[in-house]
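Researcher: Sequence recovery benchmark, item below. Answer with residues only.
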C-alpha cells in the first residue's frame, strides 16, 4: 500500500531538524558566556532567600484533579467535530453522541461520588 519512497521526505526533514538542533546546541555551548558564581549557581536564583527543603510533597488530590481535568477536557474536545457535522450524522450520530455523553456523565458522577474533587 505504501512504498518506502513516500517516507523519504519525512526522513530527510527529520535528519535536517535533528542536525540543526544539534548544531545550535553546540554553538550556544561554545559561544555562550560562562560566568560562574556562588549566587548564580545556587538554586532559586530569582532573588528569594531559600530556606528548608525544596522537595515538599504535593497532595495527591492536586494530581488527581489535574488528571481528571485533562481526561474530561479531552473528552469534551470530541464534541466539536460532532457539533460541526451533526446534520450529516443523522439520528445514528445523535444516538452515538448521547451514549458518549451518558458514559461521560456516569464517569463524572462516579468521580463526584468518590469525593475526588473535594479539598479537605
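Model:
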Amino acid at each position: 500500500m505504501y512504498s518506502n519512497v513516500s517516507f523519504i521526505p519525512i526522513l530527510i526533514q527529520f535528519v535536517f531538524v535533528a542536525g540543526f538542533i544539534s548544531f545550535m546546541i553546540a554553538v550556544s555551548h561554545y559561544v555562550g558566556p560562562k560566568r560562574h558564581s556562588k549566587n548564580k549557581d545556587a538554586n532559586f536564583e530569582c532573588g528569594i532567600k531559600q530556606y528548608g527543603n525544596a522537595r515538599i510533597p504535593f497532595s495527591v488530590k492536586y494530581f488527581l484533579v489535574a488528571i481528571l481535568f485533562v481526561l474530561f477536557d479531552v473528552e469534551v474536545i470530541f464534541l466539536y467535530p460532532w457539533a460541526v457535522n451533526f446534520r450529516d450524522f443523522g439520528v445514528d450520530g445523535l444516538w452515538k453522541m448521547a451514549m458518549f455523553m451518558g458514559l461521560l456523565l456516569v464517569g463524572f458522577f462516579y468521580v463526584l461520588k468518590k469525593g475526588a474533587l473535594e479539598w479537605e
